[in-house]
Amino acid sequence: MSVAILLVKVLAAYLLGSLSGSLILGKLRGVDIRTLGSGNAGGTNALRTQGWRFALAVVVIDIGKGAVAAALAWLPPAGGFAPLPVAAVLGFACAVGHVWPLYFGFRGGKGAAVVVGAVAVFMPAALLVAVPVWLLGLALSGYVGPSTVAAALSLPLSVPLVVAAGDRPAALAAMVAYAVLIAWTHRSNLARLAAGTENRFERARILGRWLGRGGGA
Question: How much is the pTM?
Fold first, then answer.
């Protein structure tokens, strides 16, 4: 793969990321969810403002485009660059497109679903750590955004557990980049958490309520 072809793939991944699921589906419904709820063009705000069916479609689209972008690393012509770091770069470019979409005034979502899709392609074992961290955080706290940040921060920590020694430097660099991006896009969630004003999904806080009752004793 030549540098020119790599750059074309990076651009394609960014443009693919710019196809925001919530904004495209919202246009079909006649709404712009950036004007509703938290103002974020992502799955959580879609769930709050449009219902679970709409939110599910948004998440499927956003995970799917992350996966497709990362998979471009294995399309011909091959050679020159190792597939894993290329897939990581393409997934990151797709996430950047999702956060700053060309087609929607550079105002999109927070990129978590795109990262999940990309990581599922080039390092799926890392999700065996990140997904339980997210679920545990959500079940304990009910906070989606902070739980997402915790899951993203677990990605670099998972590298020694799921990646062969020779691939660890590139994998670690990729996971740190993903974690930094997710922490940055969720900075408002973290600020609201510190201020005590972060939105909470109380129904998801199963463990938190159970522990609050003394573990059911």
Answer: 0.90
